[in-house]
Description:
- The protein is mostly helical.
- The protein is built from 6 helices and 2 strands.
- The longest helix has about 70 residues, at about 1-75.
Amino acid sequence: MLYAIGEIALVVVGILIALQINNWNQNNKDSTLLDQYYTNILADLQQTLDFMDRAIYLEGLFSEKANKSLAELKQPEDSINLDSLELWLTQMVGTVTFRIIDDSFESIKSSGHLSLIKDPELKNELTRYYGEIKRVEKMIDKNNAWLELTFGDYIRNNEVGFYYDRSGTLKNDHLKLPRESYRLSKQLNTKASNRHFKALRNMKKKTEELIISIQSVQ
């Protein structure tokens, strides 16, 4: 009887040890997998930061040119430097495209492995961050489309009235510039205020904070 009980005890102990080893192996696999996700997400965030820096720089240039153009338009008509104004306006025709890199986050989310992140604050920070940066991306796309239809076409179609005389000197229809100055100023104010610049600066700060949060748990 005691022998049978001893055998049963050994079997139970063996099962418990096997379960513990299995749990340890699974936890080790989960930890390795999560660490790889963290590494991949950090790489994505760094690439996103690089794109942000470029976009912030270009948006800053657009804002600078817009403010210079606005200041020039406030000068008396016969004092406006047409060469500078034309240069600044043509330099602002383009728009800056911003694209987020979120492949790794989408991978951990779609695979159901988001549950591997045991820190609820970090999990919430990741979810909030990618939700917010996607909204910024959509906002920039929407504004760019509007700017192309307004400011871009406005300048490309030369509605300001620039022309060159026979000597090659840049001129402006003396009736057209005053008539268009209000509309042009309104367009330039949109460029100068530059919501993209402010949104990207804000997201850059949050990206850097998220990088620090992930590195602290690796």
